[in-house]
Amino acid sequence: MKRPIRSGAFRERKLYCKAKAEPAFRFYVLYDKICREDILSHAYKLARANAGAPGVDGITFEQIDASGLEAWLAGLRDELVTKTYRPDPVRRVMIPKPGGGERPLGIPTIRDRVVQAAAKIVLEPIFEADFEDGAYGYRPRRNAVDAVKEVHRLMCRGYTDVVDADLSKYFDTIPHSDLLKSVARRIVDRNVLRLIKLWLRVPVEERDSNGKRRMSGGKSNKCGTPQGGVMVP
Description:
Layout: H1 7-21, H2 31-34, H3 37-50, H4 61-67, H5 69-81, E1 90-96, E2 102-107, H6 110-128, H7 144-156, H8 170-173, H9 176-184, H10 190-200, E3 203-207, E4 213-217
Helix pairs in contact: 1-6, 3-6, 9-10
């Protein structure tokens, strides 16, 4: 028996097929899809499955579920439709790196994670169509194990040279203007571009050892993305 196709998955497939068939095509109307009730509901389920700590507002998934998820999603959708949605500051925590030092991790609020997940559902299939087959990072249904298997396959075919490169502090130095230009090669919907710009310029909240709050970034910030959000990759 064939499994039923989820309606959202069907839409994602259509976006992918359109982008794959027409590499120069630019998408003008996407924001309304991000605002759809079913997309936001699915985005919440994805965010809920990933769990994670609360953001600067301290609100947890349990609190949202207890207070009424349907009303919460309706309120979030209304903010998007009326274009009054504004992301909250990102809570920054430092996590140790395996080789020493620390990596900054940005934790958005749950409401922002849900909107970002909704945007990712709509945008990901478009850019997925443009990626080279040999790319494995931050792609759906691909992981590091798949990359290792491909390396092993190529070694068995006689390829033995390896080029290893790492861009230092890459996410911290991405120029916003160049990033938005790259996105705009495919996405022309100004409301979607506005959303991305809001997330890029969201303030970052940090607390010192005494618990004192300090804000950085914001509208004046011209480069870097807060690592940890759904949309960062």
